[in-house]
């Protein structure tokens, strides 16, 4: 029997709800709000750039329908990470942990990344390999799943 697939948005909502539950009594400070706002803004820009690239190439952003992909998106932020939308969601969770000044609130963010790495991303990679073959494999060989210092340095050149 096949297990039901849980969409990334549900995992994100669960992580955000958990963060809220463990930090609701932790007040923010001006400094934590400023730093958190900068992180959240960067995450939002990353996600928006990714969606714009998908729209520009007229391909699906639906994570469960990789067979409907009509183009391999490799421009813009996709030059530094293969998963900018997931990085953006994780960045939003980290921003919330920073706002609340809570190391415990980083646990749901880390859990979100771990679940995406264990379930969603491998399924997408399998589908995209089936659709785009060697072109996607070359892309995977040069661009990491998540943002790394090396990928940012390479993009900045």
Automatic annotation (TrEMBL):
<dbReference type="InterPro" id="IPR007318">
    <property type="entry name" value="Phopholipid_MeTrfase"/>
</dbReference>
<dbReference type="GO" id="GO:0016740">
    <property type="term" value="F:transferase activity"/>
</dbReference>
<dbReference type="Pfam" id="PF04191">
    <property type="entry name" value="PEMT"/>
</dbReference>
<keyword id="KW-0812">Transmembrane</keyword>
<protein>
    <recommendedName>
        <fullName>Isoprenylcysteine carboxyl methyltransferase</fullName>
    </recommendedName>
</protein>
<dbReference type="GO" id="GO:0012505">
    <property type="term" value="C:endomembrane system"/>
</dbReference>
<keyword id="KW-1133">Transmembrane helix</keyword>
<keyword id="KW-0472">Membrane</keyword>
């Amino acid at each position: 029997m096949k297990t039901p697939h849980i969409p990334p948005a549900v995992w994100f909502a669960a992580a955000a709800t958990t963060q809220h539950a463990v930090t609701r009594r932790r007040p923010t400070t001006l400094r934590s709000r400023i730093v958190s706002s900068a992180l959240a803004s960067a995450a939002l820009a990353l996600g928006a750039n990714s969606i714009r690239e998908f729209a520009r190439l007229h391909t699906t952003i639906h994570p469960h329908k990789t067979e409907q992909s009509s183009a391999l998106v490799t421009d813009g932020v996709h030059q530094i990470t293969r998963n900018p939308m997931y990085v953006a969601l994780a960045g939003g969770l980290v921003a919330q942990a920073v706002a609340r000044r809570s190391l415990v609130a980083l646990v749901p963010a880390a859990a979100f990344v771990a679940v995406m790495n264990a379930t969603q991303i491998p399924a997408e990679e399998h589908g995209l390999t089936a659709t785009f073959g060697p072109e996607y494999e070359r892309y995977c060989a040069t661009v990491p799943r998540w943002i790394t210092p090396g990928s940012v340095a390479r993009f900045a050149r």
